Amino acid sequence: MESEIVFLGTGSATPTVKRNHTSIFFRFKSDRFLFDCGEGTQRQMMKSKTSATKINAIFITHFHGDHILGIPGLIQTLNLRGREKDLLIIGPEGTEDLVRIMEKLGSYEKAFDIKVKEVDEGKALETDEYFFKMFPVRHRKNSLGLVFQQKPVKHIDEEKLVEDHGLEPGPLYKKIKQGEEVEWQGENINPEDYVFKEKGLKICYSGDTRPCVRLVNEAKDADLLIHDSTFSQDVLDRAKKTNHSTAKEAAEVAREAQVKKLILTHFSPRYKKVHKLRDEARKVFHNTETAEDLKSISF
Ligand SMILES: [Zn+2]
Ligand SMILES: [Zn+2]
């Protein structure tokens, strides 16, 4: 599979026997990322075999303890294992100060450097194949949501090329894919007739938040929306007071943004089982699932 998500922690506030603090592992091809890194994340990574040593970057959505307290322990383990490659940590304003404090915790031999990038909104990381974007949400000061967007993928209509020109897959295909006009058996082949673009994978992670218009806009047409669902609708007051969302509200965001699939996460410890939250959301947005620790999804 080209990409994979593993929920390493799905609890809010305090961990429970079944739920670790928040962290989501995301892999695109061989690039590996963490979205938040709550306490105990490194043990969850061992259990799910999502190698911590190969992590390229950690995205932090905000500074509440349930999203960041796993970082110091993880840093120390990576040093003990002799990681040499830089680690990138991306988060809101204040991330640099936070990371430098974390680096001082404990006593260990430093083996690699941590680079920090502070973002308020916009592209947070970009390669030829994809980019990550962060944007403000409604939780505490400097709280961000996150979008992963794969760039459009070029495909060649092989069948048509063989039919029109008798050209089988080979070195010329690469040139055509790159948009070059090529000559084959005395005929010119125009790449525009044979190359088409397919929309890339889009994933949106809300972080902790109240429902907001910005989030609806950023999640538009995503293949997957992972949304804060700390509470059920019967305690909406509590959700408002703590700047979180209910399952119903998460589903309303999914419906408005016309995403393909919604996964609820960040559950309050008051819910031992979360089928009630799932059922509440499904009344508004049918394709809803609930996350659970170590659950994985492939794309
Ligand atoms: Zn939280
Ligand atoms: Zn929070």
Could you explain the architecture of this structure?
The protein is of the alpha/beta class. It contains 10 helices and 18 strands. The strands form 4 sheets. It has a 7-stranded mixed beta sheet with strand order 6-5-4-3-2-1-18, covered by helices on one side. A 7-stranded mixed beta sheet has the order 7-8-9-14-15-16-17. The model has no long low-confidence stretch (mean pLDDT 95). Bound molecules: zinc ion (2 copies).
Report mean pLDDT, rounded to a whole number: 95
Q: What pattern of helices and strands is seen along the backbone?
A: EEEHEHHEHEEEEEHHEEEEHEHHEHEE
Overall structural domain count: 2
- Percent of residues in beta strands? 25-35%
CATH-assigned homologous superfamily of the largest domain: Ribonuclease Z/Hydroxyacylglutathione hydrolase-like
**Shape verdict:** globular
The ligands bound in this entry are:
zinc ion
Give the % helix.
25-40%
Do you know the CATH architecture of the largest domain?
A: 4-Layer Sandwich
Q: Would you count the extended β strands for me?
A: 18
- State the end-to-end CA separation: 6 Å
